[in-house]
Every structure is written in structure tokens, then in C-alpha cells.
């Protein structure tokens, strides 16, 4: 799956104005789109909208990276192993995450993203503690 196909998927998904009210209607929504588009990767794996529906259903509409609820406004398709690193469009390599999490992950593996997040948090904690210590000294 390349970036253009992800953008196209998100565009089609956003253009759907009606709300999905029932699981049956939701399943039909993905079935209808199965005939509209298939994703292809260099390895030849194909994923359909029905596959995407089942992935989303198995995730219970929850982002696997942040734990946030997925909505039409924030949903994005993610490759667990990025295509740029040899990942495929196999169902086992696809998941749904929030757009923010997907843009942060970019071409990184999950553990690389986690290490960057840890560095940011530790840096923020150190700066906060240093600021508090400076404030105590000046009092």
C-alpha cells in the first residue's frame, strides 16, 4: 500500500456523509467498497474493503497504538511492518490507527516509535524537574 492509496482510502471514507448506525449497515458499507478498490503491494498481496472491515471489527474500533476510539474523522490504515521496510498488504500486517499516531509512526517499527516517545517524555520530565528546582532555589 503506498501513500496515495491510503490517502484515496481516507478520502473515500471521509466522503461517506451518512452515519453508520448498525453493525449490519457497517458491514454492507465495507462490502460495497470492496468492489471499488483493491490495494496492491509489490508482493502482489491484495486486501479488500471486506478485509478492512474485519480488521476494524476485530480491533473493536480502537486504535492499537493509542487506545483511542476510531471515528470517520481520525481513522487511518497502518502497516505494522512498513512497506518501505519489506512489509506487505497481508491482512496480518494491516491495522487501523488514528491519523496522528500513523503520521508519527511514519516508516518506523513500533519499538522505534516507543523509544522516541520515551525520550520525549523523559526530556519533558527532566526539564520540569529542573524548572521546579530552579524555582525552589530562588525562593
Helix content: 40-55%
Helix/strand order: HHEEHEEHH
Strand content: 5-15%
Total helix count? Answer: 5
The rounded distance between the terminal residues' Cα atoms is: 58 Å
Mean pLDDT: 77
Could you give the count of β-strands? 4
Most strands sheet: 2 strands, antiparallel
The fold-level CATH name of the largest domain is: DNA Binding (I), subunit A
* Helical/strand content category: mainly alpha
Shape: elongated
Q: Which CATH class of the largest domain applies here?
A: Mainly Alpha
Query: How many domain modules?
Result: 2
* Biggest sheet strand line-up: 1-2
Q: Residue ranges: pLDDT <50 for 5 or more in a row?
A: 33-40
Reported CATH architecture of the largest domain: Orthogonal Bundle
Topology at a glance:
Blueprint lengths: L2 H13 L7 H12 L4 E2 L5 E2 L1 H10 L16 E5 L14 E5 H7 L4 H29 L1
Short description:
It contains five helices and four strands; from the N terminus they run ααββαββαα. The protein has helices spanning 3-15, 23-34, 49-58, 99-105, 110-138, and strands at 39-40, 46-47, 75-79, 94-98. The relative contact order is 0.12.
Amino acid at each position: 500500500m503506498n501513500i496515495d492509496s491510503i490517502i484515496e482510502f481516507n478520502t473515500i471514507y471521509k466522503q461517506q456523509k451518512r452515519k453508520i448506525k448498525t453493525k449490519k449497515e457497517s458491514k454492507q458499507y465495507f462490502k460495497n467498497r470492496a468492489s471499488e478498490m483493491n490495494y496492491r503491494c509489490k508482493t502482489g498481496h491484495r486486501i479488500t474493503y471486506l478485509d478492512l472491515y474485519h480488521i476494524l471489527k476485530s480491533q473493536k474500533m480502537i486504535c492499537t497504538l493509542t487506545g483511542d476510539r476510531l471515528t470517520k474523522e481520525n481513522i487511518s490504515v497502518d502497516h505494522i511492518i512498513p512497506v518501505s521496510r519489506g512489509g506487505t498488504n497481508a491482512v496480518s500486517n494491516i491495522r487501523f490507527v488514528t491519523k496522528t499516531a500513523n503520521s508519527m509512526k511514519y516508516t518506523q517499527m513500533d519499538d522505534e516509535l516507543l523509544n522516541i516517545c520515551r525520550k520525549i517524555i523523559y526530556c519533558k520530565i527532566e526539564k520540569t524537574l529542573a524548572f521546579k528546582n530552579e524555582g525552589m532555589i530562588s525562593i
